[in-house]
Amino acid sequence: MLTMALGSGIFCLEGQWDSDLRDRKSVRPILELLDSLRIAAFIHRDVATTDEFEYFVNKWVQKRYDDYRVLYLAMHGEDGSVYLGRDDVMLEDLQEMLRGKCGGKVIYFGTCLTLRGDAKRIQEFARVTGARAVVGYQREVDWLQAAAFEVLLLQRLSTGLRSDAIFNRLVKEHGLFAKSLGLVVGTKNQVHRVPLREPRSSAAH
């Protein structure tokens, strides 16, 4: 099997999935697979508090990490927010943390519901941060199904395709995943969404 040259790196912040510390769910194996296939290198850090989250977000935008152009937020979410394990971070607060710092970069919300809201809010987030694309889901998603899709999605995000090309390819090639998860890809100019379908499981991000 042929492997690919490394694309843009992935900077992943992962929240606490369960209050039981014996729980072992993690997206790290997804990142290790992409790295081993020479698709994308990665940095992975666990976060549970707002202070930890803001500390590592500020690290991501430092020049030394310019090659890690995809910020992957793997955690629980609600409409317009992410949940770290102890604290919540509103989309508006993250927008201010990243104001003008995300030129040419992609922010991927590997969370439930965060991008369910008004399209104008997503466009404003992209405009204020300067992000090339903002990607996520508009519904509660099955953990295992999302993990399988993320291998494909992160490969696309790391290649530097235009946002509309990312969306169109994922819907064309992996439409069942994209539709059942409620894929959203937004820029400062437009927001692409897929029609929703019923999920197969309630075990959610």
What does this structure look like?
It is built from 7 helices and 10 strands. It is of the alpha/beta class. It has one domain (10-17, 24-193): Rossmann fold, CATH 3.40.50. Strands 2-1-3-7-8-9-10 form a 7-stranded mixed β-sheet, sandwiched between helices. A 3-stranded antiparallel β-sheet has the order 4-5-6. The N and C termini lie far apart (32 Å).
Question: Main beta sheet: strand number and arrangement?
Answer: 7 strands, mixed
Order of helices and strands: EHEHEEEEHEHEHHHEE
Can you tell me the CATH architecture? 3-Layer(aba) Sandwich
Beta-strand content bin: 15-25%
Class from helix and strand fractions: alpha/beta
- The coarse overall form would be globular
Query: Could you estimate the helical fraction of the residues in percent?
Result: 25-40%
CATH topology: Rossmann fold
Side-by-side strand order of the widest sheet: 2-1-3-7-8-9-10
Number of helices: 7
Sequence stretches where pLDDT stays below 50 over 5 or more residues? 199-203
Provide the number of structural domains.
1
Radius of gyration based on Cα positions: 15 Å
Number of strands: 10
Which CATH class applies here? Alpha Beta
Q: What's the mean pLDDT score?
A: 88
Distance between the termini: 32 Å
